[in-house]
Amino acid sequence: MQKIGLLAGVGRLPVDFAFCARNLGLSVVTIAVLPTVESDLAEASSVYHQIGVGQLQLLIDTLRQEEVSQVTMLGKVTKELLFSGNVELDGRFQQLLASLPDQKDDTILLALVKELAQEGIQVADQTALLKMLLPQPGVLTKRQPTEGELADMDFGLSMAREIGALDIGQTVVVKDRAVMAVEAIEGTDACIRRGGALAGGSGAVVAKAAKPQQDQRFDMPGAGPATIRSMIEAGASALVLEAGKTLLVDRAEAIALADAHNITIVVK
To answer: Is 14 in contact with 75 (CB distance < 8 Å)?
Structure first.
């Protein structure tokens, strides 16, 4: 049976991937790099390991022992972990970081891809088995967007692409064609909550787009029920996703939650 490795962070994407890959007859060797992965990830996997995100040498040794030559990286692993002091970095990871010109997301992830490649382990396209999670253009919810929301969506997507080009983040919160918040190291949900508060607790539009230089092997933008819950907390009224380039996880649950709170979701 052909094997594929899965380096898994937080969220449903790794679980969806593992179930999909096994349904296609693949053996999924999962390494959970955080203790807060989904509880059913082990069940979804053929082989399951838990290795801290900073233990690069052990991670590589495990993949080689499992005879894995191709991996997919899925799930949220926020970069703030590197700066919090709560994650132990082994010597190999420390050496890798020290060799980098900066610590942008793409810089770190490309270096990790190169490190794995040196060991004969290739990183695969994140969407290879998840094409069905890339929604096409249209309104996904019962409520249609207002003209004002549509204007904010177009403005928000253009701003999201700009910050993506700078490798800062992939999400912005806007209102009346003014930027309320820009995603950085804190992640999407914190950005939404901050932007909603600055927008007065109502009427904010959340825009999520891929980077113009998006590498599909890692860091593909995604949304799901957790995104909608953050929007509800923030009083945001609309979400726009870039068509064909943004993953929508647990689509039915996300849409039902949005419908229940009069939030419109548009793919453009």
So the answer is: yes
